[in-house]
Amino acid sequence: MHQTFDAALGIDLLHANQTGADHNRAHFDEWGITCFNLMSSPGAGKTALLERTLAGLHHDLRMAVIEGDMTTELDADRLRQYGIPVIAINTGRSCHLDAQMVAGGIHTFSHTYDPTQFDLVLVENVGNLVCPAEFEVGEHAKVALLSITEGEDKPLKYPIMFQEADCLLLTKMDLAPYLDISLERITANVRQMNPHAAILPVSAKTGEGLEAWFSWVRHRCQAQSSALAQPLQR
């Protein structure tokens, strides 16, 4: 009885969250905005990647960030230095952002700025390799980060994150010479979980691989923009 109740409760929570996520995505689609959900364990380099992304793509895309953290606005303050809107969400004891939290961020964003003037919203989720992948927030694509310092087995031990990812960034590649690690084995483990995700080795410190990441971002934004425009052409 107890196990059945827990399972049913989990399904109800995910169903309610999905309804909220669909509502959030409808807003993004109405405004012509693409949304990416960035997920990883703590310390994998999400904020550092966002800093390089904001600096590298500001001429191409009008961007905003929804920044999730359990406490503080330390990461949000780092990103605000790039002169873009950053909406901070503190989750308290929750280990992930959910659709309702992001809806609050969207509400703040749309009442402060004209959302139709933006191309891309980047959601930085709470550092966790499990929960964020299960709770959609209205994103058009999920981006997972895996630091090569975390080991080769993480895709097998935390499969949901890697199954759900549209793009996987292997971060901190500048440390590769100092680690006993095989990128081929990491890739093979990821492919067991997800044969289709783009896998991009990058270093926010040296810039290695960032052009490939920028190209992926541009392509997905262009594809989303084209998809939204199609019904208008019929």
Describe the structure.
With 234 residues, the protein is an alpha/beta fold. The chain has a single domain, classed as Rossmann fold. It is built from 9 helices and 7 strands; from the N terminus they run αβαβαβαβαβααβαβα. It has a 7-stranded parallel β-sheet with strand order 3-2-4-1-5-6-7, sandwiched between helices. Helix 3 (74-80) links the parallel strand 2 and strand 3. Helix 1 runs parallel beside helix 4 (99-112). The longest helix is centred in the first third of the chain and has 30 residues, at 2-31.
Q: What percentage of amino acids are in beta strands?
A: 15-25%
- Which runs of at least 5 residues are low in confidence (pLDDT < 50)? 1-5
Order of secondary-structure elements:
HEHEHEHEHEHHEHEH
Radius of gyration, in Å, reads: 18 Å
**Main sheet overview:** 7 strands, parallel
Report the top-level CATH class: Alpha Beta
The CATH H-level homologous superfamily: P-loop containing nucleotide triphosphate hydrolases
Helicity, as a percent range:
40-55%
